[in-house]
Amino acid sequence: MAKGRGHGRFGSRRFGSDNGMQSRVFGPPLWVALHSITFGYPTEPTSLQRLHYLQFFRALGHVLPCKYCRASYNKFVSQKGRAPLRLATMRNRDSLSRWLYALHNLVNERLGKTRVPSFERVRSRYETYRAHTCSDSAKEKGHHTCDGRTGFRKRAKKLIPSSLPPSASLRTLEESLSASDSNQASTMAPNFDEINTSTLLVTVPRKMSKRANMLQAYINAPPTGRSLVFQTPRMIAQWGIKEWEDSNGQGPSYTLGLPFLNIQNDLDLKAFYDKMQELDEFIIKTAVANSPDWFNGKSLSEETIREKYSAIVKPSKDPRWAPRLNLKLLKRDKEVEYPVTGEDGLPTTEARREKEWACQAFGADGQPAIMKDADGNVRTGMDVLEKGDEVICVLEVAYVFVTPQGFGPTLRLKQAMIFKSEHKDYDDNVCQIVPPSRTRAPEPLESYAGTAAGVESGSEEEA
């Protein structure tokens, strides 16, 4: 096609250009759409809705029609950025809309704009755009329509046209969210990237179990002072749940192995791997700085302590195989009433003790996990999980065990969200991630608690 002039006609070369679109053209309407999405987010979203919205905003950084916009967006929302995008951001409508408000201000600050309306003003204006009547009448040719109140202003304005002046300090995202979180108790576990090892407190190891040669230390997290709980990214349960006989003769034990597959390309998985390495280093530094308390009055060298340590993520003996996170699953006794016929011939019930999983399991819809297998049997809880399924876990650092042979953290599975997979045959991917050296000099200890206040007794023994 010959190159034309005027009237919006361009030749094939122009249509094949790699140049992006002009941000002044697509930017304002896109911001209106994004703010509409956040202010339309459910006030009490389900787990599946949180994941869908999180995936959408993460994918946005890969599809913006301007390479500089994509780079800037991804930098802002990265875990170390000024507006990190986390699953916790999806807590409710207020938290998500405040996150986008803070992000929009950061973009405007980068563009040198000097005016910014308050979040409350932006929220109030968008409320005038909320639909109040919806219909599907035939008169509207089958199209679903939502209309506002009489006198609704249909022309949208630029709602955050500017940002703070350079001399002013921009509030961080966490400060922006604090207003919505101050009067609400979140039921979501913190995401793994919210772990701040500099604020953790470790108790002095004490004998808290039946094993005479084992001590236990507890890691307490602010502000509650309770045990450290966090949420993992989505991972593949490549081998499902493995059953094995415990060496202490107390019956079968169960392990869920989660390999770090495709860690080179999965940013969330790589960030989770790095965070677990950071937590390992924190525990090792604490033990090094307080060696006599941890190792029966002995002042051991750092090298010896590192050799005794059992890492959270276990590296494979074969470097071609991915490292894995091994989780010990517990079962507890439960009384179940069964209908029986009594000696007098009348119907009655009989209590029987059975085993059930000590952790909760949910499906991708956020409801308790339940399914029928190929034989028609009903499975519930963690029995739903099969080889090759994917899972998001809520983990608790139950305690740090200390024995003459070694020491390390014990992680327990508290909750799991199971995503059923059609592809069950996974091979171990070659892992090229080399764990950081454990021989580097430790940094100064930042937090150490000398008491065991608030620690529950009677914890499970380390297998």
Automatic annotation (TrEMBL):
Feature: compositional bias, Polar residues: 175-190
Enzyme class: oxidoreductase
UniProt-listed Pfam families: Evr1_Alr
Domain of life: Eukaryota
UniProt xrefs under InterPro entries: ALR/ERV, ERV/ALR_sulphydryl_oxid_sf, ERV/ALR_sulphydryl_oxidase
Region Disordered: start-end pairs: 162-190, 437-463
Enzyme Commission number(s) from the entry: 1.8.3.2
Keywords noted in UniProt: Disulfide bond, FAD, Flavoprotein, Oxidoreductase
Gene3D superfamilies assigned: ERV/ALR sulfhydryl oxidase domain
Co-factor(s): FAD
UniProt catalytic activity: 2 R'C(R)SH + O2 = R'C(R)S-S(R)CR' + H2O2
The protein, known as: Sulfhydryl oxidase
